[in-house]
Design goal:
single chain, 283 residues, alpha/beta
Length: 283
């Protein structure tokens, strides 16, 4: 797999995106679980005003998700400076600087939109950053993740107690951390809150870290540009309520997702009930 990643990384990003669009369709047509979850989540989100719009959004999303898979070798294995330079425009960087100027650390929320992998590398090229990540089952993938992500001033923190301590330590040093706000947490690590009209088990760690450190928070989205032209980053500020309340955080997430719905990871099992947790109708 490492060799395959290295071979794919030699291809131009535009070529990988074209292959990825085809890969997205192959996955959709041959994986019933993937396709049914994608259709259900997208339809129930109610983003389209008509059936033709829903169909168009679905088809675009299928292609974008395939691009997201095929661009990983390029992002993880190409030279660090080249990957950082693929960010063509950075909108709202002043919000990040304002949060950093408070001196209590910055929490960057990076939802599953576009190429969220490039956000941490862009920031880590400028300041020290620690990102939380879920350790994969396969050793080779864990190796690829570390080699691809821990570049510049980036460190990874696993989703366990030691990783949480690592994040808090970084914040208390006035540094930056990154967290996926729309990743389904384990039992006891979240609470049920509305997300596009449906209850979703939502992470509470972000609010606890903000309360313990006094850190400011911003949200960042990486928009994938057409034709393999690179990426645009969009930073938006978040108030303390949006960080410490899972319900308000989901509202903020919905707002940024509505700006780029075709690039959101609708196939993710966002509404699952964690093992051992009570379902929302029993709470």
């Amino acid at each position: 797999m490492v060799i395959l990643f290295d071979v794919l990384a030699r291809l131009p990003l535009s070529v990988l995106h074209r292959i990825g669009a085809l890969f997205g369709w192959v996955t959709y047509l041959f994986s019933k679980r993937y396709s049914s979850r994608l259709r259900e989540n997208l339809q129930k989100a109610g983003l389209a005003r008509s059936e033709p719009e829903t169909k168009e959004l679905l088809h675009t999303n299928i292609r974008e998700m395939g691009k997201g898979v095929l661009e990983l070798p390029w992002v993880w294995r190409r030279p660090f400076e080249e990957v950082v330079a693929s960010v063509r425009r950075c909108h709202g960087w002043e919000h990040f600087e304002a949060a950093q100027a408070q001196g209590k650390g910055v929490i960057v929320l990076t939802p599953h939109i576009g190429c969220f992998e490039v956000i941490g590398l862009y920031i880590a090229a400028r300041v020290p950053m620690t990102c939380m990540y879920r350790v994969p089952r396969w050793k080779f993938l864990d190796t690829l993740m570390h080699e691809g992500r821990e570049r510049g001033q980036m460190k990874l923190a696993p989703t366990d107690l030691g990783g949480v301590r690592q994040l808090l330590k970084a914040l208390k040093k006035g540094q930056v951390i990154g967290v996926l706000p729309d990743q389904a947490p384990g039992n006891g690590e979240g609470e049920w809150a509305p997300f596009f009209g449906r209850p979703a088990y939502t992470i509470t760690l972000i609010g606890k870290l903000a309360e313990a450190s006094g850190a400011a928070a911003v949200m960042c989205v990486s928009e994938r540009l057409p034709g393999g032209a690179g990426y645009d980053l969009h930073f938006t500020p978040l108030d303390s309520g949006a960080v410490r309340s899972p319900a308000q955080m989901n509202v903020a997430l919905e707002q940024v997702i509505r700006q780029h719905p075709e690039q959101y990871l609708w196939s993710y099992n966002r509404y699952k009930v964690p093992r051992g947790a009570l379902p929302p109708d029993a709470v």
